[in-house]
Amino acid sequence: MGIWCASKRKRKAEMMQVNQAMSTSMMKFLNKTSTSTTTDLDEPNIKMDLNEGNLSNNISKYNEEMTKEVETKSDLETSPPINTFENKEITLYVNSNINNICDLEMHKQEIVLSEPLMSLDPGKWVFPLSGSQRHDLVQHGPQQMLEICDENYPLDNNKRHFSNFHYTRKLSNRETQHRRWLFFSNLQTQMIREGCCDWKHLSTILQRHEKSQEHMVCMIKWVEFDKRIKLGKKIDRENEKRICESQKHWYNLFKKLINVINFLASHNLSFRGHRESIKLDDSNNSGNFIDLLKLLSKYDHSLQNHFQLINEKKLAQHYLSHDIQNELIKLMSKKVIEEIIIKVKLVKYYAFMLDCTRDISRVEQMSIILRFCNTSTGDIEEHFIGFIAVDSTTGEHLTNIILHELKSNGLDIQDCRGQGFDNGANMVGINKGVKTRILNINPKAFFAPCGCHSWNLILVDAVKSSITAKTFFGFIQKIYLLFSKSSKRWDLIKDKLKLTLKSLSETRWESRIAAVKAILFQFDDIIDCINILKMQIVDAETLCDCEAILKEMLTFEFIVAIHVWYEILLRVNNISKIWQSVQVNLKMAVDSLNNFCNWIQEYRDIGFNKKNSKEEKMFSYEHTDEPMRMMKKSLESISKEDLYKHCCDLGTVLQEGEKSDIQSFELYKELQLIISNLPDFIKDAKQLIKYIIENNLQEIYPNVYITVRIMLIIPVSTASAER
Q1: 398 and 444, same domain (yes or no)
Q2: pLDDT by residue (tens digit) across 626-667?
Q3: Residue that terminates a domain, selected from 453, 484, 506
Q4: Choosing a second label site near 655 at 20 to 30 A (CA), which of 26, 81, 202, 677?
Q5: Which among 406, 426, 453 is the end of a domain?
Q6: Which PANTHER family does the UniProt record give (predicted)?
Q7: Terminal-to-terminal C-alpha distance of the chain
């Protein structure tokens, strides 16, 4: 019996020892550490009498002690930002209460540059807390996880867990109070770091802790600190105000720098000059970037003050150097590319276009364009993502660069549905070209040769095959050379003509329509200029040229030829313009080419004296892209057997192994359904996808929606990449 009693007393003593240890475990978090720094506003250790009559006196005494211990900080008005731009990332967040800290008259929602806000999980806090961290903690308040249900809290070894019930305190009169000081750490699976995790006796522990003097002292400090923050009566208020003003100054400065960089980059203007100087009184050319900032400083007081501080050598870092310019450009370009990639990933399917050219330093530069269909608007978008210097232009090397660039941006090559580039052998070669290598990786990356390059080659070969055509354009060039060889002759036609004469170009057929147009619409004025030139010159060779040109221009054959070629080149140029448009698609390109072939045949049979006005209107720039029949009538004219066969063929093309973009039979059924419901104003695929998006029909016609998107993104030309 004695042994049993002794054992019982021993267990009771051990339990009392555990309870006593747990009652003070929460103070490991709430007690202030003794470590102090010049930047932390550590509160002094003050013993307080918690009697009701002495509470106000204790608070006043506490404030006086804090005022004595905090030293006045140096003036930070002109100091550089705390986070160096070259080495650290600047974190920006909006603090709606900063006006209470700095000045009640300051603008609301100041932009504050500081260390990140503290984690919501106390288990992740690193002690001792800095002054700014304690400031953030008090200002924003404890973040309790009240939205978590009791059953979602982690269990301990005894299958017990924390409950939201403990966030509320019951008073003796049955009223309830919220324990705003109570935390739960998911990381440590306990209420606070190194805190209490005895869930069975937690209610008793919390009641004992709330009645302790240490807890009440800490709560008084907390309430007082929060009150001083809200009233802007902290003892370091002036220093906080200077810090806030300095932060606001640097934020506004970088905002101006970014706007200037954006302006120069969007207008393709250079940044640096030969002799850069940041002195306001220096009249030399310091480059567009510095000079534009100097110009703005005349109307911006803060920017002018910044330059003055630089000239007076009061700023160690002014952030106007070329290194900062380059770093800002890289950050801005990185952000732009990130936004483009996000849009591409949202729409899934994309196409890429390439073009290579040498820069002034003889380095081969490859431009990459991404083309995709915006699923929110139905518009086709093309975005430039950068220049890449290439050491070799072989098909293998260019393919590796493309694949690496797509992978580095997080794009899957299997989502590519189109590739476009010029007709060079290294690009379109059957065995080792870029086209073939990409198709071996992704057979659904459909290739379409650049329409504008092919169109130009056809026209060049067509002209070279006709001696009459070659003679005509040679004579057009001869008229231009007659006046361009002398500045006096050029001044003569500038005074007489409204449209200047144009030279021919082998690669740009737009120059040919401009050259023919200048002569056709100013035929009489050019004749007068040649006659005036004949009377002024004394050179026999030039006089002979004038006589020969004048004689040829007045022939019936030349007059007929210039009218015919203008009609042809006008439509040729319109087709070239349409194919260079971002919104063009394969259907529009094929329709415009078929319409041109039909017009050529009819123009050849009818003759230029009997032009049909209706055809003239149809081939104008605004209407060349419209098909001759409505889409609904085109679908209705196809038999069900042919329609099903086309759907099966398309499904086979869009299938690789077990993966397929569409279901052939479902596409066939959707097309049958859409034929009866399609409005008459729908004329092409572009209007069709806009109709589907605007009326939220993606769920009804998913296969039609996917098919049209893929068809629209296949590039017709590489004009965007060349530009």
Answers
A1: yes
A2: 444 455 556 667 788 888 898 898 888 888 888 888 888 999
A3: 453
A4: 677
A5: 453
A6: AC-LIKE TRANSPOSASE-RELATED, PTHR45749
A7: 101
